[in-house]
């Protein structure tokens, strides 16, 4: 079985089409950097299509003794910020914010990435509509129910 840190990164700012995406962290050392092409992948790397991120911007390293990641700044042009402060090397806490250029990531425990299995239901205006939706009724059936049982 492959090693898994139990942590993930959520994209919170930048890369608009990927905002909210969650990236599980399965390597002990992970290079964070800019992609040359769309969809670029490499083992032990997370690439982002954000021009303000350096090719090799920072490295995440798992600290076995402390059971969490540390980040090490690598870029010569843009800073690496943790919770808004520039860092060279920093031990990371769950919930912290990591900024690489204009890209902002949040370090989260993997269990927080789970989504409900069903999407939230649309708001219902009345009990009749709720019943109609539960029974898979279409607009015609709903209209007939309204005539039979006026408000």
Give an overview of the whole structure:
The protein has 151 residues and is mainly beta. The protein folds into 2 domains: 7-113, Tumour Suppressor Smad4, CATH 2.60.200; 121-151, no CATH class. The protein is 12% helix and 34% strand. The protein contains 2 helices and 11 strands. It has helices spanning 127-134, 139-148, and strands at 7-13, 22-24, 29-34, 45-48, 58-63, 68-73, 80-82, 85-86, 89-91, 97-100, 103-109. The chain has a 6-stranded antiparallel sheet, with no helix packed on it. A 5-stranded mixed sheet has the order 4-3-5-6-9, with no helix packed on it. Strand 5 (58-63) and strand 6 (68-73) form a beta hairpin. The longest helix has 10 residues, at 139-148. The radius of gyration is 23 Å and the shape is globular. The model is unreliable at 115-128 and 141-146 (pLDDT under 50).
Short recap of the structure:
By secondary structure, the protein is mostly beta strands.
